[in-house]
């Protein structure tokens, strides 16, 4: 369980690390902040679009071997990023790393749920998802702090080493896990056609991720524009967000079994309130910390809720359904960064926060109005 959680940590921090480094990345590579955000976009596009195919094509591969291969790609990719002489090579490397990241998201939670007794499967998923909180509490702020002490290349070099260590942990601790309930590419894409509940979940994920990551990708530029935020303060803010995420993950672990719909709706409303707060009182340090704390809690609740919504919609084909979830999730991380970059470059970073409010609100409305009795068909 620890090895799989650590895997999530290194995959997520690698994917989102540019968020805390956008300003120095853009200055060092000679590109705009919006263009630097394409580092998130490139990895998200590959993770989203490639995952259903790769998961299906590897459906007969032992999941332990597959995960070790994915971690090897991650370690080499971080190393190449740290020494790449130009921006195009970095973008190409991020694309390749994205394929590995997407497959992990599709198989990681399922692997954790399989290595514990069935009655503890949901708790196992919550434990692994805590890697998200660890990444936001420790990983992304640490990357920002390392950059301030050295440079962004040092940060990615260190993450290459961490990825290699997790590779060894997975190779030597996780038991053999032959592929379970994996299906062909055709059957993967037929799932949302036949399963109404899964289809609705995927639409909600699209709106939520576009809204959340569209705004979150540009937190640093927003704070630097609206306040006199230093690197140290931004690091604290990211840590505060991560702590909130850990709390939200714990809360969600307690509430999703009682009311999955209520957990998602409540978390979404909290996220909207946090973004409104950031706009209203986010010009001073106390207001920023309060808003980011609430944002983190909300994200933790919604994140765990949408995973459990996917499981509830397709329990017999969870890995395949998660590949579609991952496709929607990561593609929308990419699109959120892209759309946010366009808004940031043309209408200012404040408009990105407003866009986040609208999109998350759409996800909340859809979840609140979706019939409780919606079930798979076909």
Give a structural overview.
It is a multi-pass membrane protein. It holds the Pfam family MFS_1. By secondary structure, this protein is mainly α. Helices cover 84% and strands 0% of the residues. It has helices at residues 2-29, 33-36, 38-57, 63-83, 87-114, 121-149, 152-173, 185-194, 196-216, 219-226, 231-255, 260-281, 285-313, 318-347, 349-369. The chain is globular, with a radius of gyration of 19 Å. Residues 373-378 have low confidence and may be disordered.
What share of residues are in beta strands? under 5%
Q: Helicity range of the residues?
A: over 70%
Write down how many β-strands occur, each being a DSSP E stretch of 2 or more residues: 0
Low-confidence stretches: 373-378
> DSSP helix count?
15
Query: What is the H-and-E element order?
Result: HHHHHHHHHHHHHHH
| Gyration radius, in Å | 19 Å
Mean pLDDT value: 82
**What global shape is seen?**
globular
Give the termini distance in whole angstroms. 35 Å
Q: Main sheet?
A: none
Structural class: mainly alpha
Main location: membrane
Subcellular location: Cell membrane
InterPro entries: MFS, MFS_dom, MFS_Efflux_Transporters, MFS_trans_sf
Membrane topology: Multi-pass membrane protein
């Amino acid at each position: 369980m620890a090895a799989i959680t650590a895997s999530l940590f290194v995959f997520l921090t690698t994917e989102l690390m540019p968020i805390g480094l956008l300003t120095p990345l853009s200055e060092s590579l000679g590109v705009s902040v919006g263009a630097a955000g394409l580092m998130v976009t490139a990895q998200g596009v590959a993770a989203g679009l490639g995952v259903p195919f790769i998961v299906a094509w590897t459906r007969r591969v032992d999941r332990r071997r597959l995960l070790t291969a994915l971690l090897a790609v991650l370690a080499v990719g971080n190393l190449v990023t740290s020494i790449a002489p130009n921006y195009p090579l970095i973008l190409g490397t991020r694309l390749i790393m994205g394929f590995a990241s997407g497959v992990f998201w599709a198989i990681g939670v399922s692997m954790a749920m399989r290595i514990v007794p069935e009655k503890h499967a949901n708790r196992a998923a919550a434990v692994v998802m805590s890697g998200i909180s660890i990444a936001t509490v420790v990983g992304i702020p640490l990357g920002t702090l390392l950059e301030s002490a050295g440079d962004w290349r040092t940060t990615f070099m260190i993450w290459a080493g961490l990825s290699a260590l997790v590779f060894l942990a997975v190779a030597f601790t996780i038991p053999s896990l032959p592929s379970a309930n994996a299906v062909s590419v055709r059957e993967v894409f037929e799932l949302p056609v036949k399963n109404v509940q899964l289809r609705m979940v995927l639409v909600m994920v699209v709106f939520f991720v576009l809204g959340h990551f569209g705004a979150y990708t540009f937190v640093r530029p927003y704070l630097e524009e609206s306040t006199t935020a230093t690197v140290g303060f931004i690091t604290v803010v990211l840590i505060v967000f991560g702590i909130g995420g850990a709390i939200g993950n714990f809360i969600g672990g307690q509430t999703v079994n009682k009311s999955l719909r209520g957990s998602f709706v409540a978390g979404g409303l909290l996220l909207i309130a946090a973004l409104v707060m950031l706009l209203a009182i986010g010009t001073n340090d106390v207001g920023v910390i309060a808003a980011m704390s609430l944002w983190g809690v909300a994200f933790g609740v919604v994140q765990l809720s949408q995973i459990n919504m996917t499981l509830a919609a397709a329990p017999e084909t969870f890995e395949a359904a998660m590949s579609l979830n991952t496709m929607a999730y990561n593609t929308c991380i990419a699109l959120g960064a892209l759309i946010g970059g366009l808004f940031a470059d043309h209408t200012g970073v404040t408009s990105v926060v407003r866009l986040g409010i609208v999109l998350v609100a759409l996800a909340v409305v859809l979840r609140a109005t979706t019939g409780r009795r919606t079930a798979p068909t076909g």
